Amino acid sequence: MAQIILENARIFDGVSADCAEGMSVLVEGGTIREVADRSIKADGALRIDVAGKTLMPGLIDLHIHSYFSDLNAKVVDSRDAPYRTAHAVKKLGHALDCGFTTVRDIGGGDFSLASAIADGLIRGPRFFYAGKVLSMTGGHVDYRTPNEQHHTHGYCSCGSMNWGGVVVDGVDECIKAAREELRRGAHCIKITASGGVMSPSDPMWMNQFREDEIRAIVNECAERRTYVSAHCHPISAIRRSIEFGVRCIEHATLIDAETAVFVAERGAYVVPTMSVIFVSMEVGAKLGMAPESMAKLKIAADSAIEGLQHMRDAGVKVGYGTDLLGSTYDQQCREFTLRSEVFTPLEMLRQATSMGAEILMQEGRLGCVRPEAHADLIVVDGDPLKDIGLLAADGRKLDLIMRAGEIVKNRLN
């Protein structure tokens, strides 16, 4: 089995601000076998001199939608699977080139796409997915406009199901849908627990799903040894979701100081998504975003950065996510720049590595540089602990990208 040794590296391990220098890392078969403060002996190994640059875990984006090929969800539906897949290929390849060696598709990603990546048919990051999002009738992933009446329940190509979600009402339907997505290989289940920006018939302040419905979905995931993540904007949705057993909150855009303390005390996770808010504010109207969605987006933008500050002050466990839609996926690294208004480089590096692994329930395998971890690594030309802009440069400041032991990019030697 081929061996690669990365020598003379300065290692950021995903957690510590103290980076060990002069380190060597032995990679074999997609796995890190040894990390040492000396030269590693291995006959026949490919040796790469890192030249004292920063070797660190590959980045993790916890909130993407691979198939979301337009800012209008109904347009995405009408383009059908081949177009959505072509979009996913470009989006995932760009993510890998930016140093994201792992992504979590939190709505729409499926077993077929995961298999294509695993089999090398598509060039992309390590892929976790939540399957179809569960939404109640009139919820955030029910994309029918108010004048559309057609609705038939079940897993079919009708009004209750689209490329990204399935509409379910009542405990039995929630249980069945959760079980179906888990059967299809979903690594977690996502629900819409509040209104959203892109959906046409629900205000952002609206709480969604009853307590018994959410608890039923949470129970199904617990039995599968996984978790529920919930789309939430207002504080009421955040609070009730966590009270009912949800482990991770997506967005949390309207969070206040008191709710941030509540989230931290409960040990729940939050994945804010700044990029989608500010990028869509800039180009949404030009790219066809509906006026009602732009109005809701303005509400989110007015509170987003303040919400980050509340999370930081309360010590909330925060992961890195972007949620970029359509052609705006090329702004994925901008999330670092936006978060830098509140967080330090070290905090952001942890969010995009070790905390991402914790949220994915992959501690010790992802987001770290240690023996038996996946060999998902990047080499930064500079010190990202001092200059987070090195990671916001769309991969231009990365001299090496390694995914599962395979060298994707190498400018070192």
Automatic annotation (TrEMBL):
<dbReference type="InterPro" id="IPR051781">
    <property type="entry name" value="Metallo-dep_Hydrolase"/>
</dbReference>
<dbReference type="Pfam" id="PF01979">
    <property type="entry name" value="Amidohydro_1"/>
</dbReference>
<dbReference type="InterPro" id="IPR006680">
    <property type="entry name" value="Amidohydro-rel"/>
</dbReference>
<protein>
    <submittedName>
        <fullName>Amidohydrolase family protein</fullName>
    </submittedName>
</protein>
<dbReference type="InterPro" id="IPR057744">
    <property type="entry name" value="OTAase-like"/>
</dbReference>
<dbReference type="InterPro" id="IPR011059">
    <property type="entry name" value="Metal-dep_hydrolase_composite"/>
</dbReference>
<feature type="domain" description="Amidohydrolase-related">
    <location>
        <begin position="54"/>
        <end position="408"/>
    </location>
</feature>
<dbReference type="InterPro" id="IPR032466">
    <property type="entry name" value="Metal_Hydrolase"/>
</dbReference>
